[in-house]
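Whether sequence alone determines local backbone shape is best considered at the level of individual chains. We regard such an encoding as a compact summary of how the chain folds. The sequence in question and its structure tokens are set out directly beneath this paragraph.
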Amino acid sequence: MDLSDMPMNVNVLTTPILYAPLDSQYKKLGDKHFRAVEKAIKKHNINFDIIHSHFTWSAGYAGAKLKEKYNVPFIITAHGYDIYSLPFKDEEWRSKIEYVLNAADHIITVSKSNLECIKRLDVKTPVTVLPNGYRPDMFHPADAIQCRDKLGLSHDKKIIVTVGNLVEIKGHKYLIEAMKEVVKKRKDVICYIVGGGALENKLQKQIDDSNLADYVKLAGAKPHSEIPLWMNVCDVFVLPSLNEGNPTVLFECLGCGKPFVGTKVGGVPEIITSDDYGLLVEPYDSQGLAEKIEIALDKDWDEGNIINYAKQYQWDNIAEQIQDIYDKV
């Protein structure tokens, strides 16, 4: 957890919980999470006026239980898999997530596609769609050459960057397949995959088997404070996800004035509404992704236009809208 530059009026209390990474154990995590949070509340003698939980499970369940016990307003933000996947896995999950959403006084979700998932559930709580945002003090244009020097990267290559955990849902497999097509037509390009995760060895094998070691690099996990450098070194930012809520890296990339190439999943098409800001392709389509990357690398993008468009998603603007919801409840 990055606690740098934390506002003076914010306190962070962690509530670590040990559990086995099994679905059966994950279903029991709600009560464990609630007990851990309540223990922290009592230990630190916290008096509170509102609860805001992020993700329906397990923080949302803990928030719902806290509302029942302390009788204070409860807001839940549904972000991604917790609303487009969990409630539709089986009836038990559906019941759990419906309980959380109906316990809330207001639901926030980050995309219209998430809202459609909520509409498929038996939920009566009012919902507001509020996208994620970015910090303009961190994510803003910076000199690409200086950023490349700081990271020790080449000056004479077109650079593609993606940022995300190395898990199936992020679609890195299809980006590597796309890069195999891209380098057939041009050799002046290199793709950096920033992130760590369980698929590292599998993806490295795919890179090696595809003879792409000179063109695709696994950069590893990086601290959040370093991500602006990676955003600013790239000519094109790519996100090949197979599903999303509304990815924060999308807004961070736009805040740096970089064009976005990605998939038509979650809230992404709600943000990339014009070819002036980026190009979209269907998920799982490595050939189509390669074509969009090639177009993006050759296109003369208007950085200023992208930055101006991104300003509406600065966290200050999103926070004002969250404040309005707090006031209502």
Notes: The chain has a mean pLDDT of 96. The radius of gyration is 21 Å. The longest helix spans residues 29-43. The chain has two domains: 23-133+315-328, 144-313.
